[in-house]
């Protein structure tokens, strides 16, 4: 790439010298035409080289590997975000101080949610929500984020 840029720079400098040295007249037109052909050749040379190397547009996908540490970090953040969103939604429903733990596993860089542990030991229900079915509301919110069945939600009081 550096050689290509240097050749373009050289052709520009040569063009300036040609403009200064060559006298105006009919010969000037011919010299500028020849110069234009050289400029065109320099600009097109990488394209010609690209197709002559028979590389085309093929990519070698075997060179790329998935960084497992990065995938684990992303999945861990995804689970933490789900847990926080569930707690925030439950607080909007009037249910405070609920601890949510999503149990998950990662197989072949695929995240799968196994179950959800819901600790109601410190649960505080807003005064305007005293006569609600807390279990149904919690199940609905957890299901919204995890798609877990009711049996996969474990409640502790």
Task: List the SSEs and their pairings.
Blueprint: H1 2-21, H2 26-52, H3 68-92, E1 95-96, E2 99-107, E3 110-119, E4 124-125, H4 134-146, E5 153-156
Parallel strand pairs: 3-5
Antiparallel strand pairs: 1-4, 2-3
Helix pairs in contact: 1-2, 3-4
| Order of strands across the main sheet | 2-3-5
Structural class: alpha+beta
Low-confidence stretches: none
How much helix is in the residues? 40-55%
CATH architecture tag of the largest domain? 2-Layer Sandwich
- Count of DSSP helices? 4
Overall geometric form: rod-shaped
Q: What is the name of the CATH class of the largest domain?
A: Alpha Beta
Output the helix-strand order: HHHEEEEHE
Could you tell me the radius of gyration in angstroms?
Answer: 34 Å
Cα distance spanning the termini: 67 Å
* Residue fraction in strands: 15-25%
Number of domains: 2
Q: Average pLDDT value?
A: 82
CATH level-3 fold name of the largest domain: GMP Synthetase, Chain A, domain 3
Number of strands: 5
Largest sheet: 3 strands, mixed
Question: What labels describe this entry?
Answer:
alpha+beta; rod-shaped; 157 residues; GMP Synthetase, Chain A, domain 3; 3-stranded mixed β-sheet; 5 strands; two-stranded antiparallel ribbon
């Amino acid at each position: 790439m550096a050689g290509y840029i240097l050749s373009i720079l050289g052709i520009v400098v040569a063009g300036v010298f040609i403009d200064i040295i060559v006298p105006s007249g009919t010969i000037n037109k011919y010299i500028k035409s020849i110069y234009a052909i050289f400029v065109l050749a320099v600009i097109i040379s990488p394209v010609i080289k690209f197709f002559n190397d028979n590389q085309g547009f093929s990519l070698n996908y075997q060179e790329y590997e998935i960084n497992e540490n990065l995938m684990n970090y992303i999945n861990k953040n995804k689970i933490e975000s789900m847990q926080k969103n569930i707690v925030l939604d439950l607080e909007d429903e009037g249910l405070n101080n609920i601890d949510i733990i999503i149990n998950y596993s990662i197989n072949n860089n695929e995240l799968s949610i196994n179950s959800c542990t819901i600790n109601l030991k410190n649960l505080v229900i807003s005064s305007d929500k005293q006569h609600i079915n807390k279990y149904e509301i919690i199940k609905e919110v957890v299901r919204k984020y995890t798609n877990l069945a009711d049996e996969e939600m474990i409640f502790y009081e």
